[in-house]
Amino acid sequence: MSIYNLDLLEKKIKNSNVEDYDIYFLESKVFETQFIQNETESERDINTIQYFIRILEQKGDKTGIGLIKGNSLEDDKIEKDIEKCKKLSMINDTSKYYFPDKKSYKNIKLAENFIIKNPLETKNKYSDILQSAIKNQDKINPSFGKFRVHIQNRFLRNSNNLDLKSIKTYFFFEFALKAKNNGKLSEFWDIEYIKDSKDLHLETRIEKWANNAKDALKAKLPESKNNIIVILSPNLLKDALIPVLSFHTSGQAFHDKTTSFKLNEKIASDNFNIIDNGLFQRGLNSNPWDGEGNPHQQNILIENGVFKTRIFDQKYAILEDISSTGNGIRTSEGTIANTVSNLIIPPGDLSIQEIISTIKEGYFIEKCSWLNPDQFSGNFGAEIRNGYYIKNGTINNPIKGGNISGNILEMLKNCAYISKEQKFSENTYFPYIAFSNLKISI
């Protein structure tokens, strides 16, 4: 059915006398269970289609790009959208742009067969595991939860005879767990996307969430400290690093002269390494090809603290007269973002417990309200939701409230310890990292 719909769209584009186009077509199947407290509230299966059409109008050294987003396969609607897209291409101007040709692509498996064959059975199996794991937690009550299984087919076709397709499976879950003691109430709420079933670890996650909720009942305000050592969880590192690193490593920032990174210059501690890998089988953003049709790659961004590789999409590669690194990522609106695919930080030599044992005084932060650093400057500040005070090499007490602040670009230069343990969080596979120059305030 998807190929038929893609053929239909392409035929109508050609009938409109359009010569330069691409079609990005998504077919998604979602199988969801929603929970209220200890009960299943609802179950639903959702099938959706979505497509994005881009039309180019070449204007000498400029190119006009028209883009439309659609989800209707009615003839009249498609034809109106194509005409609108043509008009947009005529009035919009950008730098010279052209669609990629077909290239060589890596063969990576992104879908788990048992999910494709039995998505409902898979969803029910893991939903039962979640409910059972929650019931096994002492003094914990769930308030709300969701678990979803996703199956996504992607197609990309353009006027340069590019004709690509892939299928991917992944999971989403969201849960809120409450703890209560002597009239005090606390809640731990987590949201996560996970690509592979082997990385779900649902029982372990539930136990950790439950402990976080119970620890919050005993939490104290942190003491204000300047230049204190702080361990950040992998999930928190994702929020801290992606906005800043994706910006400063991009071809767009290089072209606009807004990046702070120069190739082969020292920008981080010797022990800091980070890789962008669009071919990482267990990565949420993995695919043989990016949102424009260029091959995804593995690129070492920082090696032993030295900036090694800049990432490019098609537009900024053309401007620099080089090849794309496969970092043209489709946004939910169909536009192309010159950004990272999956980020991986290799493990260190010490376990998280060994790292804690070396710290005379510091903090271990699990979660913040919204850690959203400025991508240009790297500055950030966020409320602490869950964390711990470290004293003389041991966890002293839980903390909650107060503020953590610092600068991501400076943090990279002050990376004290990296843990052996790594965890998945959306499109990252990160360890715990201790930084020596952060500020805690109340």
> What would you report as the Rg, rounded to the nearest angstrom?
24 Å
Q: How many helical elements? A: 10
Query: What are the segments in which pLDDT stays under 50 over at least 5 consecutive residues?
Result: none
Strand order of the main beta sheet, please?
4-3-2-1-5-6-7
The amount of helix comes to: 10-25%
Structural class: alpha+beta
Averaged pLDDT: 95
Task: Please explain how this structure is put together.
The chain has two domains: 2-215, PmbA/TldD superfamily (PmbA/TldD fold), CATH 3.30.2290.10; 219-442, no CATH class. Strand 6 (163-181) and strand 7 form a beta hairpin. It is built from ten helices and 20 strands. The strands form three sheets. It has a seven-stranded antiparallel β-sheet. It has a five-stranded mixed β-barrel with strand order 8-15-16-18-20. The protein has helices at residues 2-15, 75-91, 113-117, 119-135, 202-217, 234-248, 251-255, 314-320, 352-357, 408-411; strands at residues 21-36, 39-59, 62-70, 94-95, 140-158, 163-181, 184-194, 225-232, 274-277, 298-303, 306-307, 328-330, 336-338, 343-344, 361-368, 379-391, 394-399, 403-407, 415-425, 428-441. It has 442 residues and is of the alpha+beta class.
Blueprint of the fold:
Elements: H1 2-15, E1 21-36, E2 39-59, E3 62-70, H2 75-91, E4 94-95, H3 113-117, H4 119-135, E5 140-158, E6 163-181, E7 184-194, H5 202-217, E8 225-232, H6 234-248, H7 251-255, E9 274-277, E10 298-303, E11 306-307, H8 314-320, E12 328-330, E13 336-338, E14 343-344, H9 352-357, E15 361-368, E16 379-391, E17 394-399, E18 403-407, H10 408-411, E19 415-425, E20 428-441
Helix pairs in contact: 4-5
